[in-house]
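Here is one chain, start to finish.
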Amino acid sequence: MVNLVALQRPLMHWLMKMAGVRPYTVELEPGTAMNFWVPNETLDKPKKGQKPSVKASPTKPVVVLVHGFAAEGIVTWQFQIGALSKKYSVYVPDLLFFGGSATDKAERSPALQAECLAAGLRKLGVERCTLVGFSYGGMVAFKLAELYPDMVRALVVSGSILAMTCSVSDETMERLGCGSSSELLLPSSGK
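Its structure:
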């Protein structure tokens, strides 16, 4: 069977290059790293064999596009990145366990995702942003706005609920034979 997303990957990477963003991994702490697609102008051009480093804060208003549960960031937002990058500094994270982002922490929650996303953005020089979240990314965006209101200039959410609460999910989890939504949706490892 052919993996269509894998076949698309070189094309998506080329489109991202044309849009002026490139991949960069932020080590948040030992055992936790988050991949981002970041504006080219915020990273230096490394010498051959070296990793780029953050050289500057963004110069345009920042838009952060947070993907849903089905795919990594550039798969979800491939059509929006090029259009938005003309007027905005666009950052596209891969949430933990997507696109190579990983942690060795046992916790699995939108709160952990939001804390890691905020820490990663700060390490990239982002102080304030407009957050755009789709589906699961919307829950993460809501949580980030709740935890770090000074970081969020505006919030746009589509196809999401505020949070997966016990009252929303207990009956559903019981019908599916799972103890929690984390058990149902999140991998126990990044492999």
